Amino acid sequence: MTGADVAAPVREAVATLRAYRADWVHFTNWCAGHAVSPIPAAADVVAAYLRSLTEFAPATIRRRLAAIGKMHRFNEMPWDVTDGRIRAALTDMTERARRPAPPPAVVTPDMLRAMVERCADGSPRGLRDRCLLLFGFAGALRRSELVGLQVEDVRIDRMAVVLSIREDGEAQPVHLPLPEAKEMCPAAAFTAWQQVAHRQTGPLFRAISKGERVGGRALTPYAVTRILQRRAAMAEIPPEIATALSAHALRAGYIVAALRQGMDTEALCQHTRYHDPRALRQYERLLTHD
């Protein structure tokens, strides 16, 4: 047996452990956003988590379930992967992943501008929402990436806002170009939001009380959905479109706009953190629609 024969399995084992670690971090971040315990994890919690993995392939979903189980067994915590709730969620998600995905609801560039305009009241909520809308769209951020952003993940340079997005345990830079129009500029939106948020670390997008006091808790994906629907209604977007928007609509909107403009597939995959170009097919079906 050669050194290469030994090295290959070792590399595969290291890569698998790295993936499991990233999967566990993803699960704990989801639990933190939903104020539930990751360990020991109740079957209902695990099932809800699995059902949230709508953007992932069946192999990834199964691996993340395996990572949760390994962490429980390592800590000698009770774990029953045969629980009916977990098995039903796993079956539903893997079967769903094999079916063609329905066309996602999207925020178009025109919708984005109209929604941003409705944030220009100078209030903490308006400043937060403008920053969230621009970051989510320009960065094509997944809902987990958007609510998981930390203040220290943001850097402004001369040409762009640079976000540090964590993927598989590693940080990947995502660049948001700076447009000439200040009201649509991510850097200006971030600076204005920071002036009222007064945070140097911790969650970037935080809950705000009815008295307009900025809290310390990060937004949840569901809260992002409510923000999008509220801003869309304020922008007088038709109700049937506004109510269909979810936290994924900003990412979907960027991808559809980029495809429509003829952006190179490789560059688009790199910007959106898609490893397989086939993931873009669900958005290509929307190119014939306005």
From TrEMBL:
<feature type="domain" description="Core-binding (CB)">
    <location>
        <begin position="1"/>
        <end position="76"/>
    </location>
</feature>
<dbReference type="GO" id="GO:0007059">
    <property type="term" value="P:chromosome segregation"/>
</dbReference>
<keyword id="KW-0238">DNA-binding</keyword>
<keyword id="KW-0159">Chromosome partition</keyword>
<dbReference type="GO" id="GO:0015074">
    <property type="term" value="P:DNA integration"/>
</dbReference>
<dbReference type="InterPro" id="IPR050090">
    <property type="entry name" value="Tyrosine_recombinase_XerCD"/>
</dbReference>
<keyword id="KW-0233">DNA recombination</keyword>
<dbReference type="InterPro" id="IPR010998">
    <property type="entry name" value="Integrase_recombinase_N"/>
</dbReference>
<dbReference type="InterPro" id="IPR011010">
    <property type="entry name" value="DNA_brk_join_enz"/>
</dbReference>
<keyword id="KW-0229">DNA integration</keyword>
<dbReference type="InterPro" id="IPR044068">
    <property type="entry name" value="CB"/>
</dbReference>
<dbReference type="InterPro" id="IPR002104">
    <property type="entry name" value="Integrase_catalytic"/>
</dbReference>
<dbReference type="GO" id="GO:0003677">
    <property type="term" value="F:DNA binding"/>
</dbReference>
<dbReference type="GO" id="GO:0006310">
    <property type="term" value="P:DNA recombination"/>
</dbReference>
<dbReference type="Pfam" id="PF00589">
    <property type="entry name" value="Phage_integrase"/>
</dbReference>
<dbReference type="InterPro" id="IPR013762">
    <property type="entry name" value="Integrase-like_cat_sf"/>
</dbReference>
<feature type="domain" description="Tyr recombinase">
    <location>
        <begin position="102"/>
        <end position="290"/>
    </location>
</feature>
<protein>
    <submittedName>
        <fullName>Phage DNA recombinase</fullName>
    </submittedName>
</protein>
